[in-house]
Specification:
Helices cover about 30% and strands about 15% of the residues. It is α+β, with helices and mostly antiparallel strands. Strands 1-4-5 form a three-stranded antiparallel sheet. Strands 2-3-6 form a three-stranded antiparallel sheet. Helix 2 packs antiparallel against helix 3 and helix 3 packs antiparallel against helix 4.
């Protein structure tokens, strides 16, 4: 008989509010500032149910950009659970879960859950629009082919609303 598997602890990280908090018009000068480090963790598989829920951001992941010429930084916190790029199985022959869009997907995933850890914030349409637009700019910086970038962005814009508004109790794990 295998040994018992340790319980997973949910630990919401502390991070700066990644959303603009004001009216904005343009995102430019996007850069990936640190390497994306992922871990495949048995604890993550146990916490999140489903075939794709099996990776954890193992180190803080930092990106920066200009928001109407003001330099901004987003840090995706260590311990965030991810299913990589959320791509329906039927579309994977065209757009897979892993590719040049992966790093942008991780930032986008964080922006889709971060509001839950900001006291009194709530899911705001302006913040979702920011997440989607930043995703598009990040994919361009990663040189995702323009057709794939357009397809991915259109899918997120059309179908991401329920994923954005849905609360996710198990979005981070404690990596110790």
């Amino acid at each position: 008989m295998p040994p018992p598997i340790p319980a997973v602890r949910y630990v919401p990280p502390s991070f700066a509010n990644p959303y603009p908090g004001r009216v904005w018009s343009t995102i430019t000068a996007f850069s990936y500032d640190t390497d994306l480090e992922l871990t495949r963790s048995i604890e993550a598989v146990q916490v999140r149910k489903g075939e794709d829920a099996e990776y954890v951001v193992s180190e803080d992941y930092k990106v920066s950009f200009a928001l109407d010429a003001e330099r901004r930084t987003i840090v995706v916190p260590r311990g965030m659970l991810t299913d990589l790029s959320s791509v329906p199985r039927i579309t994977r022959p065209i757009i897979d879960r892993v590719g040049p869009h992966l790093e942008a997907s991780i930032v986008h995933d964080f922006l889709y859950v971060a509001w839950q850890d900001i006291p009194g914030h709530g899911a705001r349409d302006d913040d979702r629009r920011f997440a989607d637009e930043l995703f598009k700019v990040a994919m361009a910086e990663a040189e995702v082919h323009s057709v794939k970038r357009w397809l991915i962005y259109q899918a997120v814009a059309a179908f991401g609303g329920s994923a954005y508004r849905e609360t996710d109790e198990q979005r981070y794990i404690d990596l110790g």
